[in-house]
Amino acid sequence: MKPDRRFFIAIVVVGIGVAAWIAFTGFVLWSALEAGERRVLAPLLVERLAPLLVIAWLVAVGLATFALHRLHRRFIAEPARLLEQAQVMLGTDVQREIASAGSAENEGLARAINELVRQRAQLRDDIARKVQEASHDIEQERNRLAALMSELSQSVIVCNLKGRILLYNQRARALSRALSPAPAVAQGAELIGLGRSIYTVFDRRLVDHALEHIRQRLQRGSADLSTQFVTTTPGGQLLRVQMAPVRGSGNNAGDAEPASPPALGGFVLMFDNITQALEDESLRDKLLQGLTDHSRASLANIQAAIEMLDYPDLESGLRARFQAVIRDEVRAMSQRIQGLAAHTAEGLKTRWPLEDMLGADLVSAASRRIAAMYRLPVDTSNVDATLWLKVDSFSLLQALTYLAGRLLDEFAVRSVQLRLARASGRAQLDLVWSGQAVSTETVMSWEMDPMRIGQDSTPLTVRNVVDRHGGEFWFERERVRHEVFLRFLLPLAAPQVEPEAAPVPAESRPEYYDFDLFQVSEYSRELDDRPLTQLTYTVFDTETTGLDPTRGDEIIQIGAVRIVNGKLLTHERFEQLIDPRRPISSESLPVHGIRPEMLAGKPTIEQVLPAFHAFVHDTVLVAHNAAFDMRFLQMKEKASGVSFDQPVLDTLLLSALVHPNQESHRLEAIAERFDVAVVGRHTAMGDALAAAQIFLKLIPLLQEHGVHTLGQARAAAQETYYARVRY
Length: 727
Description:
Layout: H1 5-32, H2 35-91, H3 104-134, H4 136-150, E1 155-160, E2 165-168, H5 170-179, H6 204-220, E3 227-232, E4 238-247, E5 264-273, H7 275-309, H8 316-342, E6 355-358, H9 359-374, E7 378-379, E8 388-391, H10 393-411, E9 416-423, E10 426-434, H11 440-448, E11 450-453, E12 456-461, H12 462-468, E13 472-478, E14 483-491, E15 512-513, E16 537-544, E17 555-564, E18 567-577, H13 589-592, H14 596-599, H15 605-615, E19 620-623, H16 626-635, H17 637-640, E20 648-650, H18 651-658, H19 667-673, H20 684-704, H21 710-717
Parallel strand pairs: 7-9, 16-19, 19-20
Antiparallel strand pairs: 1-2, 1-5, 2-15, 3-4, 4-5, 6-8, 9-10, 10-14, 11-12, 13-14, 16-17, 17-18
Helix pairs in contact: 1-2, 2-3, 7-8, 9-10, 18-20
């Protein structure tokens, strides 16, 4: 328990008061004596009476201290502890009996509080029962929809406009582990989780491009607002992605104006890993092409041999040779057919999937991007608005923007024109400018160099983009008009008719979801100014070989769970045993019970920390006695190549902040106060789960103490006594 300064001040005041009373009494007595009496008594006072007075003062102060201690404990400390326990009941959902060892009045107050808590619990139970009865049918329907979603063959993710994941199904989570660029070493190393950024999986520019495409359709009033694209992941996998919007409100409540088109509130991604499928398809195409090419020659040889065998006077030697030709060609064709069935070819070129897109939309998007990137006027007046193209719009826009940038840098063009027209069953997309013509060597350089747009670069070249479309690319000069243009020859798609708007289906209940994140603006303020209730946390714990990392002790287990939008996500966890490559101390072994044979063959800390760092990315770290755990992590930052620079909160310090009068702030003591069950004490995951539940119950108590933001919590925690402890 934190020492109470008021108690020590009271002791000092009593000591001074007793000394003053003795001095005053002596002064009065001394003043009443005659001069002769004073001379007689003076030696006696110095030799005998002064020590007695000091002893009397000490006895009086001691008795007063004892009395003050009893009074302080009975009438100050016990009521303070009672107040803290009552605040726990008020600010959380803890339901337990409050015991008081103070005065009869305190005990009566405790009984009254317990009765109020029981009445509140009964009232809550009644409300919960009525809510449960009212929502029973809805819950059944949600469960049916959840079961349907779990059986979907596609991976489904819902995000807000910031790219934060609000919903995903189990298939998406399983696929995310396979998409990781490095093998996952621990549970929880997936790229997908509530509150995480979708841009760890998909290129932000590609997602923004697809959203812009949806906005164009929304402005046209189209009923079909979905779009699709194909992308590669950091791990080299090929994904086919379909994006659909989550519509928000188009106008505010109470507006007198007619409702505007609904704004975007987020987007849904449905995707499949098509890497193997495309490889198989390309393999079949290559084998079929090879079979066709070789079969022509074989059939010609067979036909020629048969014609020669029709001659009756053919010599026997020649006849045998022509028969051998037929046998050899038939055998070769049979082998090629078997190879086609076996799918064993190597070194295939993957055919890139294309999407259908209105040509006018592509030109409009390209003109906006060129104008925004280079402040270059773009003329789009000569565009056939009826043409539908089959394109990879993202890479094609990159190519057009890149070429416009090269024209600006090398020829200082003042404006460009984009033309789109039909020609011989294909579409001609021209980038036109007036002025100096380019040489063939220059165009070849532009075509083969990796594209760089502003500060962004890509390994793709213009030739790669053209090959994806099975098209052509060249430049021409129109001398009459004094114009030069670069031409793309692109495939056409069948014209599409916009379907009528269909009724909006009922929402599916996801397996993992938190739609409250739609309302959270994660990046609108500095981190320290964000409310504690709006942050994403990773609560973690470690088990170690010993207590001193500076003497070689190592981490042998890490456990962590995430808190998103005030909810503990027990299904999103990180748990991993670690090979410390050193013995476990005899003192630590009985504490956590992790034996050396349990760590044999486990990954090392250098392998585990990068995966753990990815798990805690963009979150606030929380731990109990966090200085201990963070010291171990920081000692391994250089070896693992990662840095844990996230803000850190400590449940030990926060407990001392809200409950300064409690005698203990150990994890078990805090858990008992908050009625939190500790399962698996001194295991990393068990302690992390307990600390996470404790932290959630501390947040409302911190708010009662005027601590609402992360910065306030960190500053207040540093003022506690326990913040002085260092490792």
